[in-house]
């Protein structure tokens, strides 16, 4: 179209060499008189909102030449025109933002109209609220309405005049600290504001989950203080022991964002003390009685109950081979000692199957698996790692390397050290080592995630003879163990066999293994995490999967999938 436009200009320029006449007229003496042609546009400059139209009119003299009028647009992508029934009138359409020229040509006459196509701008901006009251930590969404709806650029910019009090991103307001902030939404020079008032939330009550407990010297217990309301701004719970020589208390807050603060109580000497948790003038107490240590006369064995004071008692095993085969259990399973708190089950006492680091630290009795799993409140499972690129040791895939890996303590410490200050990226290790209840007794290694070899022994000794026989055949397997017979079945419920070791433990002191519910459907298996990585680059970790229908698998899972983290300790 631009080429036609400039060609017309050239044509008009050449026409200047010729005379311009209309119908010949004569003067009174009959001599012809030349009447010059002229054209005049109704607008020299025209502003059109994009998407809209305007009328442009040409007045041609003499009128008889109006039919020779030619219209052109220098750039029809910016502004085009449509002829009307009257050839001297056109409708100019604004197509895209910019400037161009509409011309009217007749004979040697060119008339121009500069057309500017402009944006359709906002006439008003409004918010669904002009004031907002929030508590620290709250979020709220403001909705901005721009009129008219069909403006060219409807984008809205959001600002807060006091971002330390309340921030805003795309209308989402977050209350950060006590005070006032004005949130403004602006579009094309129009704006609307909302005044946000942010208030602190103060504690109204504090309660403890345990109000009275008996401990033995060196035994520990975790008290849980619950602060209401749950969104209290300053969850600054103070802990105190009325007799710190009898028992000490340490504040442990694993998750600053919840309403729970734990106090780890350690029994030091015989006597009584009052543990107090307080916040903002409110208090809750627990009476702690510390008794002398009871001496265990017999050596521990597989299946024994392990208590919070570091002692143990008979769990009913009469005999078992070192590889877990041929187990003989009492016809009637003994109950735990009355008044004691069970925190685990002994699953290995063979020192040849204990890691050298554990033995060097003085833990020579064996290994204990906890009666509870490590996970967030309200859940039964946790991810190994959010970071799919986790790498703190070489991966292990062979049956022989799985069996020989007894290094769960060192592997757990390596993961915790690598993610110091950001343990929330490795949830399984975080929940096992931080703020975990029940707490490990003094004089033990503390809880950690078992390695493949340690989990191997747990499965062989606590999950029945058929599982033990199957694992015995894999000890020297020199290939990828996760590919080996992944449809293996035993003749009994493996999960039930594991849970039978804690069948007489009080409900408050245990969590049985239960397959998860996924997408509303009860699953048939549980996958238990090991500390051992399957692959140190692809985000896969090792574990054992056991099922209700006899299923048993030495397998692996993506680190960011939810599964069971069952801690162990060395004692």
Topology:
Elements: H1 2-15, E1 25-26, E2 32-33, E3 38-41, E4 45-49, E5 53-61, E6 70-73, E7 79-83, E8 89-94, E9 98-106, E10 109-118, E11 124-127, E12 131-135, E13 139-141, E14 144-147, E15 157-160, E16 166-169, E17 172-175, E18 179-187, E19 190-199, E20 205-208, E21 212-216, E22 220-228, E23 238-241, E24 247-252, E25 260-267, E26 271-279, E27 282-291, E28 305-307, E29 312-313, E30 317-319, E31 328-329, E32 342-348, H2 356-360, E33 367-370, E34 382-383, H3 399-404, H4 408-418, H5 427-433, H6 452-462, H7 465-472, H8 494-499, E35 517-518, E36 521-522, E37 525-535, E38 540-547, E39 552-558, E40 562-563, E41 568-570
Parallel strand pairs: 4-10, 12-19, 21-27
Antiparallel strand pairs: 1-2, 3-5, 5-8, 6-9, 7-8, 9-10, 11-14, 13-17, 15-18, 16-17, 18-19, 20-22, 22-25, 23-26, 24-25, 26-27, 28-29, 28-32, 30-31, 32-33, 33-41, 34-40, 35-36, 37-38, 38-39
What attributes characterize this protein structure?
single chain; 571 residues; mainly beta; Immunoglobulin-like; five-stranded antiparallel beta sheet; four-stranded antiparallel beta sheet; 12% helix; elongated; disordered N terminus
């Amino acid at each position: 179209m631009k080429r036609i436009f400039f060609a017309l200009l050239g044509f008009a320029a050449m026409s200047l060499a010729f005379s311009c006449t209309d119908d010949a007229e004569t003067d009174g003496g009959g001599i012809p008189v030349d009447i010059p042609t002229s054209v005049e546009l109704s607008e020299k400059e025209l502003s059109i909102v994009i998407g809209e139209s305007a009328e442009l009119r040409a007045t041609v003299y003499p009128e008889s030449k109006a039919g020779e009028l030619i219209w052109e647009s220098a750039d029809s992508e910016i502004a085009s025109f449509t002829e009307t029934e009257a050839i001297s009138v056109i409708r100019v359409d604004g197509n895209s933002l910019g400037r161009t020229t509409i011309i009217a040509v007749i004979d040697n006459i060119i008339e121009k109209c500069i057309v500017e196509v402009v944006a359709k701008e906002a006439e008003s901006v409004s918010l669904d609220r002009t004031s907002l009251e929030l508590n620290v930590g709250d979020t709220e969404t403001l909705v901005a309405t721009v009129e008219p709806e069909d403006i060219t650029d409807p984008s809205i910019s959001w600002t807060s005049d006091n971002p330390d009090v309340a921030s805003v991103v795309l209308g989402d307001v977050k209350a950060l600290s006590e005070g006032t902030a004005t949130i403004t939404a602006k579009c094309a020079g129009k704006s609307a504001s909302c005044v946000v008032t942010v208030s602190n939330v103060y504690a109204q009550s504090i309660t403890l989950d345990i109000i009275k407990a008996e401990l033995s010297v060196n035994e520990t217990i975790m008290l849980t203080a619950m602060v209401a309301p749950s969104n209290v701004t300053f969850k600054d719970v103070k802990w105190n022991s009325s007799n710190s020589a009898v028992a000490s208390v340490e504040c442990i807050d694993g998750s600053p964002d919840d309403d729970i603060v734990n106090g780890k109580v350690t029994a030091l000497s015989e006597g009584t003390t009052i543990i107090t948790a307080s916040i903002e003038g409110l208090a809750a107490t627990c009476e702690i009685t510390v008794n002398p240590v009871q001496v265990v006369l017999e050596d521990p064995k597989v299946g024994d109950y392990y208590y919070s004071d570091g002692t143990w008692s008979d769990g009913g095993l009469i005999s078992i081979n070192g590889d877990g085969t041929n187990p003989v259990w009492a016809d009637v399973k003994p109950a735990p000692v009355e008044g004691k708190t069970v925190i685990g089950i002994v699953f290995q006492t063979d020192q040849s199957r204990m890691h050298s680091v554990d033995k060097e630290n003085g833990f020579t009795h064996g290994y204990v698996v906890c009666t509870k799993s490590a996970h967030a409140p309200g859940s039964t499972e946790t991810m190994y790692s959010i970071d799919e690129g986790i790498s703190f040791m070489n991966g292990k895939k062979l049956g022989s390397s799985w069996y020989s890996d007894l290094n769960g303590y060192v592997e757990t410490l390596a993961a915790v050290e690598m993610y110091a200050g950001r343990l929330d990226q490795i949830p399984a290790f975080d929940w096992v080592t931080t703020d975990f209840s029940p707490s490990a007794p003094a004089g033990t290694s503390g809880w950690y995630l078992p390695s493949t070899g340690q989990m191997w022994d747990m499965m062989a000794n606590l999950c029945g003879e058929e599982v033990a026989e199957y694992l015995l055949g894999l000890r020297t397997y020199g290939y990828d163990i996760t590919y080996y017979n992944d449809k293996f079945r035993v003749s009994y419920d493996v999960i039930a066999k594991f849970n039978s070791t804690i069948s007489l433990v009080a409900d408050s002191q245990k969590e049985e293994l239960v397959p998860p519910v996924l997408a509303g459907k009860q699953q048939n298996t549980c996958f238990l995490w090991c500390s051992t990585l399957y692959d140190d680059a692809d985000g896969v970790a090792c574990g054992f999967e056991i099922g209700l229908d006899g299923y048993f698998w030495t397998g692996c899972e993506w680190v960011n999938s939810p599964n069971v983290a069952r801690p162990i300790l060395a004692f």
